[in-house]
Amino acid sequence: MDNKFVVNIGRQLGSGGREIGEKLAVRLGIDFYDKELINLASEESGLCREFFEKADEKASQGIIGGLFGMRFPFISDGAMPATNCLSNDALFKVQSDVIRKLASEKSCLFVGRCADYILRDNPRCVNIFISASREDRIVRLCRLHSISENAAEEKMNKADKRRAEYYNYYSYKTWGAAATYHLCIDSSVLGIDETVSYIEEFIRKKLKL
């Protein structure tokens, strides 16, 4: 019997989603992937890591109907900069293949990058979205990045907009909407460690671990 399973976490910036994901992965004894996917996608494709970093959780910009149904960014100023040689869509496909390959080999936890949509046909998936109060998010970002409250709020708003556009564009679902996930939770209510415990219990019950 195949006992492999996958946990996918969507998160607001500053909600503690990555920290929660790391702690959950340890408790469940499974591998954790967030930014690590960029390295793996780079290695798998032989493409420069910089391509994936620039496209990371960003939807394609300036969509035109391309060859074979691909969507390419517009090329401006009559030149073709290196970043336009590969569309964000092509990079998304490479990263998606890496996510599917990992999920087929072992149990793992993915943070962001539309993993819940990419693995939508996997029957042993748990999809979770983590939010937090605006105040808690600002405090956490100020602490993590040593920035002002105004800078934290600006960073937060930009990240939320970018993540929502990316997720909605590739998944055709709504980022952060309850109907999109199995569980949505506000980490401000219980705090990080209690949120981890709550989600762990939910995962174990859902998957009968």
TrEMBL record:
It comes from the Bacteria. InterPro entries: P-loop_NTPase (IPR027417). This is Cytidylate kinase-like family protein.
